[in-house]
Amino acid sequence: MAQFYSAKRRVTTRQIITVNAIDLDSFGQGVARHHGKTLFVPGLLPNERAEVTLTEDKSKYARGQVKRRLNDSPDRVSPRCPHFGVCGGCQQQHASVALQQSSKSASLARMIKHDVNEIIAGESWGYRRRARLSLNYQPKAQHLEMGFRKAGSSDIVEVKQCPILAPRLEALLPQVRECLSELQGVRALGHVELVLADNGPLMVLRHTAPLSVKDREKLERFSHSHELALFLAPQSEILEQVTGETPWYSSDGLRLTFSPRDFIQVNDGVNQQMVAKAMAWLDVKPDDRVLDLFCGMGNFTLPLAQRAACVVGVEGVEALVEKGQKNALQNGLQNVTFFHENLEEDVTQQPWASQGFDKILLDPARAGASGVMQHIIKLAPKRVVYVSCNPATLARDSEALLSAGYQIQRLAMLDMFPHTGHLESMVLFEL
Description:
By secondary structure, the chain is an alpha/beta fold. Helix content is 22%, strand content 31%. The chain has nine helices and 23 strands. It has an eight-stranded mixed sheet, with helices on both faces. A seven-stranded mixed sheet has the order 10-9-8-11-12-13-14. The longest helix has 16 residues, at 97-112.
């Protein structure tokens, strides 16, 4: 069997070079230049000089590892989490929040080819209202591992604290692990999810074998004593509420009920600001017809309905459409209608689109909205607000609107996930 050698995939000589970092990428890696190529160095910040060992050398880029840092950037800070660098959750705790925000803003500006007009940010610690923790029982040690996955690995980092978690959830971590460790069915636990709703915390426990009566009673007592709602998930598609109220959160003063498995924005503080900013950018008038695409259960749709004459929310997940309708009724909003549609198809042919729309908002998943951009152009709204969790697909989709005569009026970086590589944004287009 013939074997072919691929040159420069790995560096075997462990060459040591001295470099100056000039930028920070979204994954917390320092960016330098070496022999005309971009060099990525984890843990190095802009304006830091270091001796670096080359670990990978490709034709267009290289990677390195810090052997000795020769100076510290003024933006270098001590990571607050003891698991930083091992846990895969955060990548930028060693950088000041100001540097994180400026680096992300610069990256966004380069991709969208437009200056970032504002940064929408909230608390940089204790902001996360949802966490999913892996569980793994070690029979030899008779020990239950509970935590997050290591960076680049399926191994579990056991966590007793997590400073980006909402304090009320962080305080539950050791108590949850202690409770689960004492269950008879500890070997059959998959993961546990903690969510902080506006009406209190909840816990979802995934188990792969039926729980004994004794275990259920223990979990119920735990939920009552810690004032949290308990949900059990014996299968991935089944969710049983055992104790507590239906969870809800607020958006623009409205109450939205949700299931623990429904998507809600993890950062409540930034979500509130984001919704308010979208309302201001769209400048919704009392006689406007507004379309909300990828609307979910109404995070933007219902606030829009408080301002417009008519709002249509369109979503590809039928269960979320039902929740949106329910939330509209619960909030006394009768000028909003939700529809379940395949957003890859031409939605302009639907009866609800026959009167057109003055304004459109869209908030797609990471894959973006390439399938609906031409439909938006056909509807010809005066203003479009695009909320994005992936700048690459936002840049791609923006080209369609720009080619059709729209112009970018405002671009905001949403600091939805401080200390991580996630880059979220919001753009206002005007015809």
